[in-house]
Amino acid sequence: MTPKYGIFELALPGPKEGNPFLEVDLTARFSGDGREFKVSGFYDGEGVYKVRFSPEAEGEWRYVTACNVPELDGISGSFACGAAEEGSHGPVQVAERFHFAHADGTRFIPVGTTAYAWTSQDDETCEMTIDTLSKAPFNKIRMSPFPKHYLYNHNEPPCYPFEGGLRPGMTAEAAVEQAGADFASSVSPAYEFDFDRPNPAFWRRFEGYLERLGKIGIQADLILFHPYDRWGFSQMGRERSLNYLRYVVARLGAYSNIWWSMANEYDLFFTWTEEDWEACAAQVVKWDAANHLRSIHNCLKFYDHSRPWITHCSIQRIAYHSHAELTAQWREQYGKPVAVDEICYEGDIDCGWGNITAEEMVKRFWDVMTRGGYCTHGETYLRDDDLLWWAKGGELTGESPARIAFLRQIMEEAPGFVDPKEPPEWDVSWGYAGERFEEEGNIAFRGRGQVPYAQWMLCYFSFARPSFRIFNLPQGRKYRIDVIDTWNMTVTPVEGLHSGRTRVELPARPYMAVRFVAE
Amino acid sequence: MTPKYGIFELALPGPKEGNPFLEVDLTARFSGDGREFKVSGFYDGEGVYKVRFSPEAEGEWRYVTACNVPELDGISGSFACGAAEEGSHGPVQVAERFHFAHADGTRFIPVGTTAYAWTSQDDETCEMTIDTLSKAPFNKIRMSPFPKHYLYNHNEPPCYPFEGGLRPGMTAEAAVEQAGADFASSVSPAYEFDFDRPNPAFWRRFEGYLERLGKIGIQADLILFHPYDRWGFSQMGRERSLNYLRYVVARLGAYSNIWWSMANEYDLFFTWTEEDWEACAAQVVKWDAANHLRSIHNCLKFYDHSRPWITHCSIQRIAYHSHAELTAQWREQYGKPVAVDEICYEGDIDCGWGNITAEEMVKRFWDVMTRGGYCTHGETYLRDDDLLWWAKGGELTGESPARIAFLRQIMEEAPGFVDPKEPPEWDVSWGYAGERFEEEGNIAFRGRGQVPYAQWMLCYFSFARPSFRIFNLPQGRKYRIDVIDTWNMTVTPVEGLHSGRTRVELPARPYMAVRFVAE
């Protein structure tokens, strides 16, 4: 029996001759729970065609295929969908406008990391990555099926997403040299690929890793295209890109732990137009029965995140000095969840995007999350073996993940999604969760005016380091107060229950927070 | 003989009766060096009228008075102006559009601090302040003649700028309570002042301190009005404010070490209009023969710094998270020198403007100065004796002044004024000084395009902490390179002379800089 949110797979024998990828148009309709979904099948090689579907309701599901090849047309059947497996909550969707929850309603608080090309490394490294992730605080990873050509990323992947590879007599070293080893990459003529023929073996290996991620509770934020490419996968042309997308969605769309990211740094695809991106997004929408989350990530210029197909903002900070603190503003502007998916990485490489301290990385997480957004980690320490986590995975050696785990726990303990206090306070950020209390007063330090209080309030001081702070709590409520050291990961309760004007002593160190929980 | 940039003072007996401040309109014309200046005289009490003038050229100067009182009218004479005293370079003026120099051409690099009301403290504290300043790295101080009513500032000054004081039977404590001890201050009815009668004893004391500052090489950036006031000096009305300004300019304008700041936080004067400010500025311009520097400082909204009377931008950062890095942009916008005169203070008080770390304070100095601006320090450590440097002076206990001294030395060693590299680099700031070299290339890390190089180039990494960086030096020049630890105050030369692509090893700590000096 197929569990709810699991994968039902239909494997059908069919023609091997010609180009089955291009020439066989296989779809299927699944109906159950009073609803009907159309999905695409895909060719898995060796004369085998597959159709996958992930049921989101228990009970009987029926299907019928349609195909331009008679032997694959009109095949029908049914299967039973049982209870979801332990820990399986279904795909993540937008919840309460600015947040996320699984299909079964379970709150999902994304705590992301980045390893763009981890599946393009050898099996041993991939195993190391999975092992690292299984112990890390992250529940989402930004990653692409494609290999990466960039600084610290010049190795050849173990296999390719399409048939083909290096031309006879060519070496990977020559390809790297042709493509340019620095930022400026171009497609190398050392390769020859048949973009009309995806490589089923590649995709089976990739799916295996998706499944492994699912088992350790991690969402794969799948980057469908990226520009750091010497193989040509970013320059296949619109039609082949659409074919690739249909294939990928058909193969992977039934995995419940995936999100679609149309691109990493879409604006570095200098030959692509907005029309190309819109067409690609429409292709994903068309074939994705599960309606997974969709976004598109920028380099220097945001995509228009108000486009209807975009479910949440996947933001790379544009200004080097001003970003995390804009989270509430971006929420307001787009009316969607904000995932700050690139905000520099903990590390010590030469590039400004990859050499912030662990303290700064953790600060940015707090700055974003106390403003009602979500943040993504990455690690870029210079290593002799060139195994930088942000691209290749491997091991984490930084100091931020432990602190991010601590933050995740604090956010998960909140009685609901965390939204920013409105109006904001000029020098600290406030996250509010749970019930709102319309009491007279203003918690703002010596401020005026009236704003609501909340059952759960978290004040973050970031780089500031006061030795005390005065809070104006509501008169009619009693709060427990904790002083939180976000770097040293301690929670120190303030004695007693508190109402009205309350002075909280602080240790005059940066990175402190104060939590208020109403009795 | 009056030295150049010194003060020639004419003291004349005149009427005591009535209100000499209001009723006697005394001016004088000074001519010498082929030029003529008109200044205002002022009443110094006890029937004595004074006229002051600071000659900026050696030789004979002649004067003649004009007055509505016959005994003070038409008095003429002359005096000889000799060489400037050792270390006396004349008033500071704008130089090379974005910078400052003394009248004799000596480069002046402002390195400011803040002690708004230090002269409103008792004599002992004032002595302590002078002593502290004599050992500190600062050559400019933001200060007001007026006392201050604000957090950590509730004491009564030892004397008042106008005749009057507490009404009989009233106490300072009662006045503080009436005015409100927090942010929200209002004028207390506990006082009665005659705003038509400046208090000469007050101003003599104040001048004494200006002179002492001059002797230790410090420019007094005089804040003529500020809103933190329980005495009523910010609310005298336009006419009395203009009279006060004429009096102050007449008394103090001959001191070569003063700058005029029309206001601290002009936009918190809720009853003042822009017309009021313009009228006040015009009054200063009218009576200031020395044409001292003029600015006006904001709280939440910049004044229009493009107004012709404004010589330089005196900026309080508006956004809490984004400021120092805007320096080059502000220069561009206003075409004037940029003094970032409030950018939070090293300290640990409860307010966000007063609890940054010393590291952050020093970082902001470097962020501003490597972008061609100037920065102002302040210190706000909580103390049992309430003696917070930023307002009352006293002693400095913070860790930033030593580092600011180090920075000052580095900037003074530059072969000229420091301007930002154009175009800027996204992740680091670059200050350029000395000769520009139009060589092919771009120093920017792995960047493209062409920008000039300079004889002296200073790259600042701020919070980033790379373990190395590659610089593309011009092929046709040889540079000495120093790695500078701005926090630990070390300068470590890189061995050899360097051209072309050059990799510089760095210690993977924040707050590093690299200096390049062409042979």
Over the alpha carbons, how many angstroms does the gyration radius of chain A reach?
A: 25 Å
Oligomer: homodimer
Distance, first to last CA of chain A: 46 Å
The tally of beta strands of chain A, per DSSP, is 30
Total number of helices of chain A: 10
Question: How would you explain this protein's 3D organization?
Answer:
Two copies of one chain form a homodimer. Chain A is an alpha/beta fold and about 525 residues long. Helices cover about 20% and strands about 30% of the residues of chain A. In chain A, the strands form eight sheets. Chain A has a seven-stranded mixed beta sheet with strand order 1-7-6-3-4-5-2, with helices on one face. In chain A, strand 18 (about 315), helix 7 and strand 19 form a beta-alpha-beta unit. In chain A, helix 5 (about 240-250) runs parallel beside helix 6 and helix 8 runs parallel beside helix 10. The longest helix of chain A is centred in the middle third of the chain and has 16 residues, at about 200-215. Chain A is globular, with a radius of gyration of 25 Å. The interface between A and B is medium-sized, with 35 and 35 residues.
